[in-house]
Task: inverse folding
């Protein structure tokens, strides 16, 4: 049995003299590793007489714990020294330009813009209307008479009068349409009606926008998007329609 005090003094000096974490880890392996000096001494306990084992067992455990404590303390000290060195030697250049992450358009809006550019080259302009429409512009003017299936509650979002307050473009109808119900538009076709009522031919527009219906399936959600076009001119023929579609 080796002198435990000699082992303690030996590794205490090696631990204190370790200049970096790699050197310290080598000391740990040499002392406490599977084949380390203290570990080998622990294996000899089985060969000792009971009275010797009672003395050497606690002594070896105490040495093992003491060396482990010294190693952890030295490790913390070396890590602190490494951090202090890094803080002194590493600097951050605050004059470097900052990379600004810019936002992007929603994919739907990107598609709308691409469509608008294509049709603009053909002479179309973009027309828009309110998402909240009155019964006349959404149904009656488009030949959806009372009793038409499209007017059913399961197909259309009907709104109460107070639900339209504060909505942009959602003024209650006046004049002969003031008693009509308000709905979330079921198509962008009301834009055609509003354009024809406010402008004279020739008319050449596309009407992109949000639309709303009380259904949800593989092709629709309660809110989806449409783009439709309208051309009114005395000289317009089916050839113009075909040309627009082919160009698109």
Result:
């Amino acid at each position: 049995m080796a002198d435990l005090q000699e082992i303690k003094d030996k590794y205490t000096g090696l631990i204190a003299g370790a200049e970096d974490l790699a050197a310290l880890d080598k000391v740990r392996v040499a002392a406490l590793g599977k084949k380390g000096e203290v570990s080998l001494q622990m294996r000899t306990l089985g060969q000792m007489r009971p009275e010797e084992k009672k003395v050497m067992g606690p002594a070896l455990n105490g040495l093992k714990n003491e060396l482990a404590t010294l190693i952890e303390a030295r490790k913390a000290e070396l890590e602190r020294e490494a951090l202090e060195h890094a803080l002194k030697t590493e600097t951050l250049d605050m004059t470097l330009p900052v990379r600004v992450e810019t936002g992007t358009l929603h994919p739907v809006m990107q598609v709308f813009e691409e469509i608008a550019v294509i049709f603009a080259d053909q002479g179309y302009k973009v027309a828009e209307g309110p998402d909240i429409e009155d019964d006349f512009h959404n149904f009656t003017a488009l030949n959806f008479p009372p009793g038409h299936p499209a007017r059913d509650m399961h197909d259309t979002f009907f709104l109460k009068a107070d639900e339209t307050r504060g909505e942009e473009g959602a003024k209650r109808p006046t004049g002969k349409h003031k008693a009509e119900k308000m709905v979330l538009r079921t198509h962008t076709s009301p834009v055609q009606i509003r354009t024809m009522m406010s402008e004279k031919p020739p008319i050449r527009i596309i009407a992109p926008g949000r639309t709303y219906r009380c259904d949800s399936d593989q092709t629709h959600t309660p809110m989806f998007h449409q783009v439709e076009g309208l051309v009114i001119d005395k000289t317009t023929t089916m050839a113009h329609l075909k040309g627009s579609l082919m160009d698109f």
In short: The chain has two domains: 4-89, 107-247.
